[in-house]
C-alpha cells in the first residue's frame, strides 16, 4: 500500500486555523477511503523566525525536498514588518520556491456560481469564469542579480544619494520550461494559451515572446497561442475575463495579474494554487500547494477565516502529487455542495444571507458533505 508523504507548514496569521480544517479532510480520506498519508508538520515564516531566528530552518528545507508534497498556509504579519529584509517571513516562502525549483505556479481563477454576486464585476461578466494563470515562479525580477540598495554618492544630481536595483533576467530555458507547462495544461482544458509580457519596452519581454512562440511552433502547434502586452492583459481581464483559457506570464506580472483574477471570482478565500517543479523519482513533480490568500492578521485567531482555499489546495495535491484525481473531484464537489447549501464564512456572506459559520464549522460541513456524496 502506498503512503503519501505530506509536509504541512501552517505558517502565520490564519495559516494554522485553516490548516486545522485541512487535517479534518485528510483524516476523512484516511478513515473512509483507506488512503495512507504520512503527515509531518513544521514552521515557516514568522513562526519559524520566532523559534529559529530565520524564516525557514535548514532542516525544514531538507524535509521539504524529501516529501511527495508540501502544503503551506500563509506567511507574514505586522510583528515582522520591521525585520531585516533577509529574515522577513516572505524569504522563507521564496527559499522553498527557489530551492525546490518550483518554476510553474498554477493559479486557477474559477467563479463558483453560488458566489458570482460577490465579484466586483457584474454577474454576467464573471459567471462560469474558469481561467488558469501559469506564473513563472523561480526567476525574473524576484531573483535576478544585481540587486540591492546602494549609495549613489558620485552622482550629485541624485537627491538622497541612493539607488535601488532589481534585475529582470530570463534565460530561454527558463521560458521554454514554463511555456511547456502552460501548453500541457491547455491541452487538458480549452486548448488556448495567451502569453503576457512587455515586449514593447523590455528585451526580456521580446525573448519571452519569441521563446513561447518557439515552443508552440515546434512542440504544440495544435494549441492556439496568442500574445498580449501585460498592461492590456490586465485591462482585458477586468473587461472580458472569459476570453482567456490559460495565461502564461513571468514572475512579477503573474503576481499582479493573479491577484486581479482572484478578485474577479468573488473571494480570495476560495482560491488554491500549486507550484510545480521537475519530476521526481516517482514520476510526479516536486510540488508545493498554497492558498492564494495571505496571512490576514486582522482576522487571525477569531474563527473567521475561510478554510476553502487551503482545502482546495489540498485537492490540487490529491490531483497532481498523489495521482488521486477522483478523490480531488470528490473534494471539490463537497466544497461546491456546501456553498450551494448556503453555508457561509463571513467573507462569503452577502445580502441574500445564508448560514453563517466559523472556520471550524466550515471544515465540519465539508467533511459532512464528503460523507454524503
Ligand atoms: C504571492 C505573494 C508572494 C509573492 C509574497 C508573499 C512573497 O504575493 O504568492 O503571490 O510576491 O510571490
Ligand atoms: Mg501575490
What structural keywords apply?
ten-stranded mixed β-sheet, 2 domains, binds 3-isopropylmalic acid, alpha/beta, two-stranded antiparallel sheet, Isopropylmalate Dehydrogenase, 373 residues, NAD binding, binds magnesium ion
- Using DSSP, what is the number of strands? 14
Query: How would you characterize the largest beta sheet?
Result: 10 strands, mixed
Poorly predicted parts: none
Order of strands, main sheet, comes to 2-1-3-12-11-4-5-10-8-9
H/E element sequence: EHEHHEHEHEEEHEHEHEHEEHHEEH
CATH class category label of the largest domain: Alpha Beta
Beta strand %: 15-25%
Average predicted confidence as pLDDT: 96
Proportion of helical residues: 40-55%
Shape: globular
| Tally of helical segments | 12
What's the CATH architecture of the largest domain? 3-Layer(aba) Sandwich
Summed up, the domain count is: 2
Based on secondary structure, the structural category is: alpha/beta
Radius of gyration, whole Å? 21 Å
As for the CATH topology of the largest domain, it is Isopropylmalate Dehydrogenase
* Ends apart, CA distance between termini: 25 Å
CATH superfamily of the largest domain: Isopropylmalate Dehydrogenase
Cofactor: Mn(2+); Mg(2+)
Binding site for substrate: 97, 107, 135, 231
Function: Catalyzes the oxidation of 3-carboxy-2-hydroxy-4-methylpentanoate (3-isopropylmalate) to 3-carboxy-4-methyl-2-oxopentanoate. The product decarboxylates to 4-methyl-2 oxopentanoate.
InterPro entries: IsoCit/isopropylmalate_DH_CS (IPR019818), IsoPropMal-DH-like_dom (IPR024084), Isopropylmalate_DH (IPR004429)
Amino acid at each position: 500500500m502506498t503512503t503519501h508523504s505530506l509536509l504541512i507548514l501552517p505558517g502565520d496569521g490564519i495559516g494554522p486555523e485553516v490548516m486545522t480544517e485541512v487535517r479534518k479532510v485528510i483524516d476523512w480520506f484516511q478513515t473512509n477511503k483507506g488512503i495512507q498519508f504520512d503527515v509531518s508538520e513544521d514552521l515557516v515564516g514568522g513562526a519559524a523566525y520566532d523559534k529559529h531566528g530565520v524564516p525557514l530552518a535548514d532542516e525544514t528545507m531538507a524535509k521539504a525536498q524529501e516529501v511527495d508534497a508540501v502544503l503551506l498556509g500563509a506567511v507574514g504579519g505586522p510583528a515582522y514588518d520591521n525585520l531585516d529584509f533577509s529574515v522577513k517571513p516572505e524569504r522563507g516562502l521564496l527559499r522553498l520556491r527557489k530551492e525546490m525549483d518550483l518554476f510553474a505556479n498554477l493559479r486557477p481563477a474559477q467563479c463558483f456560481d453560488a458566489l458570482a454576486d460577490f465579484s466586483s464585476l457584474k454577474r454576467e461578466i464573471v459567471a462560469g469564469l474558469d481561467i488558469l494563470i501559469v506564473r513563472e515562479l523561480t526567476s525574473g525580477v524576484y531573483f535576478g542579480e544585481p540587486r540591492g540598495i546602494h549609495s549613489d554618492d558620485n552622482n550629485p544630481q541624485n537627491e538622497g544619494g541612493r539607488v535601488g536595483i532589481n534585475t529582470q533576467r530570463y534565460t530561454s530555458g527558463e521560458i521554454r520550461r514554463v511555456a511547456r507547462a502552460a501548453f500541457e495544461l491547455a491541452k487538458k482544458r480549452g486548448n488556448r494559451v495567451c502569453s503576457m509580457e512587455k515586449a514593447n519596452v523590455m528585451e526580456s519581454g521580446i525573448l519571452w515572446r519569441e521563446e513561447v512562440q518557439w515552443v508552440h511552433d515546434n512542440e504544440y502547434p495544435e494549441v492556439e497561442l496568442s500574445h498580449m502586452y501585460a498592461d492590456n492583459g490586465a485591462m482585458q481581464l477586468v473587461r472580458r475575463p472569459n476570453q482567456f483559457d490559460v495565461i502564461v506570464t513571468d514572475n512579477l506580472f503573474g503576481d499582479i495579474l493573479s491577484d486581479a483574477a482572484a478578485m474577479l471570482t468573488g473571494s480570495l478565500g476560495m482560491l488554491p494554487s500549486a507550484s510545480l517543479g521537475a519530476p521526481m523519482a516517482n514520476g510526479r513533480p516536486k510540488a508545493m500547494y498554497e492558498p492564494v490568500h495571505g496571512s490576514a492578521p486582522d482576522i487571525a485567531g477569531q474563527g473567521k477565516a475561510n478554510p476553502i482555499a487551503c482545502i482546495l489546495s489540498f485537492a490540487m495535491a490529491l490531483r497532481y502529487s498523489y495521482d488521486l484525481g477522483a478523490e480531488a473531484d470528490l473534494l471539490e464537489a463537497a466544497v461546491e455542495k456546501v456553498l450551494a447549501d448556503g453555508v457561509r464564512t463571513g467573507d462569503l456572506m452577502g445580502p441574500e444571507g445564508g448560514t453563517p459559520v466559523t472556520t471550524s464549522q466550515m471544515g465540519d460541513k465539508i467533511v459532512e458533505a464528503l460523507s454524503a456524496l
